[in-house]
C-alpha cells in the first residue's frame, strides 16, 4: 500500500488511548503499512540499513552514523547530562563497519549513563536523527505508539479517545483556535465553540507549542477529564472547561449544500476506502441539485496513494495520465485514471492552504493542470514524494522516501507546492471570528466566474 501524508499545523482532537504526525508537523508516501519486519535485530541497525537501501535521496553511511550519535547527545542533554561524553569514532564509508562503530558508541554510552538514559530512549533518539538527516519531509521515524496510529490512519481505522474537535493555526506562532466542533461529541457537550482559543491544557500554557504538542497534552484515557482553558471570541480572559474524553471515529469525508446550489465536499485525508465515501457524497449533492462544487483539502495531509488515484479517477476522464513515480534506479511507473470516459462534473473549485500536503497536493495539481478545477487559497506544503513504511523490531516504524512523484504533465511539486489560481490569505482573526475568506472567495468565483 503506497501512501501520501503530511504532518501539518492541524490535528483532530479525537484521540486513541494509544495525528499526527507528528508531531504532526503533522509527509507523503508509504508503500507498505505493514510490510515484513526487517529482521529480528535491534531497531537502530534495521533503520540504518533501510535508509541506505531504499532512500531515493543518496545517503552515505557516515552521514547516518554521525547523525545518530548527534541525536543521542541531544537526548542526554535533555536528561541533564552536561556535557555528554559520547564516543565519536571516525567513520569509514564502509556500511558494515560504520554500523558496527555506531552500535559500539551507543552501547558504551548506555553503559556509562544507565539508568539516566535507557535503551528505548537511545533507540528513539538515534533513529529519529538519522531519519531527519536525510533531508526530505517524508523520511520519518515513528515511535511504537505513533506507528500504530499511523497505520490505523492509513487504513481508515482511526479511532480516538478524545474530545471531538479539530484545531488550527495559520502560522506556527499564532493562537491555537478550535476550527471544528463535531456534533454530539464531548467538545460539543462541554460547550466548546468554533473560534475558541485554547490557552492552556491542565493548567499548562500552550503558548508557542505546536498543534501536535497540544494534541499530546490533551490525549488521555477514555472517560477521564481534561481541563482546557479557553478564551472565547470577544472575551479578554480565559475560562476553564472540563471535557471528558470519549471514543470517537473522525470523519474522512463531509458534505453539505451551500447557498445557490453550491455543493461543498471536505476531504480530511485519503485513507483506504475513501473513494467510495467521496462518490456517495457526490451522488448526494447531485441529488440535491448541486450546480457547482467546492472540494476542500485544506490541512489534508494525504493518505494512501491508491486512494488518491481512485478519487482522482472520479473526477478525470478515463486514461488521463494522473502522475508518474520515478525511483532511485530511474524506473518510472505511470498512474492513469480508471474513471468514466467523460465525467459529468459541475464547475469546481479546490480549496488549499499550507497544510495541504502530499496526496492532497497531487489531487489539487492534477485537477488544476487538466483544466477541471480552479484552485483557491495559499501555496501548498510542497511535501510530495512516495515512500514506504517499514515496521522495526520492538514495534516502532520508519517511513523512507523511495520515489519522486511528478504530475501527469511533468510538474515537480516537492519543495514547490501548488500555486493557487486565486490567492486568498486567512488570518488568526478570521479563525477566531468564524470567518472563512477562502471559502467565500471560492463561492464568488463559482457564481461570477471571476
Structure report:
By secondary structure, this protein is α+β, with helices and mostly antiparallel strands. The protein folds into three domains: 152 residues, no CATH class; 89 residues, PDZ domain (Pdz3 Domain), CATH 2.30.42; 181 residues, 2-enoyl-CoA Hydratase, Chain A, domain 1 (Alpha-Beta Complex). 31% of the residues lie in helices and 23% in strands. Strands 2, 5, 6, 7, 8, 9 and 10 form a seven-stranded antiparallel β-sheet that branches. A six-stranded mixed β-sheet has the order 12-13-14-18-19-22, sandwiched between helices. Strands 3, 16, 17, 20 and 21 form a five-stranded antiparallel β-sheet that branches. Strand 20 and strand 21 form a beta hairpin. Helix 2 runs parallel beside helix 3. The protein is globular and about 70 Å long. The protein starts with a strand and ends with a helix. The N terminus is likely disordered.
